[in-house]
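For the sake of clarity, the format in which proteins appear in this thesis is described at this point. Each number in the token line that follows is a code from a learned vocabulary of backbone shapes. One such record is shown here in full, so that the layout can be seen directly:
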Amino acid sequence: MATRKTIVKTCPSCGAFFNTEAYEVINATLDTALRDEVIWGRIFDFTCPSCTHHFRSPYSMAYKEMEKEYIIFLELDEDARDEDERISKSRITEDQITETRELFPTYRIRVVHDMMDLIEKIHIFSAGLNDKIVTYLGHKIKDDVTVKMKNAKPPIRVYKALFDSLKGKAGELNFGLLSSSPKPIFVTTPTRDYEYLLKKSPLRHQFEEAEGLYQIDEGWAAGIDKVLIA
């Protein structure tokens, strides 16, 4: 079952501080209805009791699925008010990881620092995919599209490529781009690229599960290219 906590939020409209309930841990296997609430970001929506302003404000929490054996810790520095509290929160996450490894040794453990990264990981694991490969593909797509879009008028800046879903019978991975474009941009890549990285690529060992490596993001993916160059 889901566990809750009390947090303090600040209204971006009137500046009022108020206590509110939030989720500490969501077990999507036991609370299936909460999965969509996370996917659509609604668990991070609040209403100010002073001015009734509605706003979205992510907070640190954990999301796990027992059937697919994974847990994702969303760790946000903005929850902390000073450096000591940030260090304390980091230690809490380390303790949670240690506890998870002891209780659930077969679980994949991930730490993310952005709501969209949390949602992407859920999509990836729900599709039964290796998140290291998908993250690497997203990194390459972002780089490719950035080059193609730099001559657009005005130039379009690509911030991130996020996995969305498996698409159709053709066997494609669908990515949505966060960019400065006024229109949504979607890019697909064939699943054969995924299969190549999984089974035949010289990099394939980089995509195996490794103890102690829990933050799989664009920075990690960029490091894979350096391994290839070396």
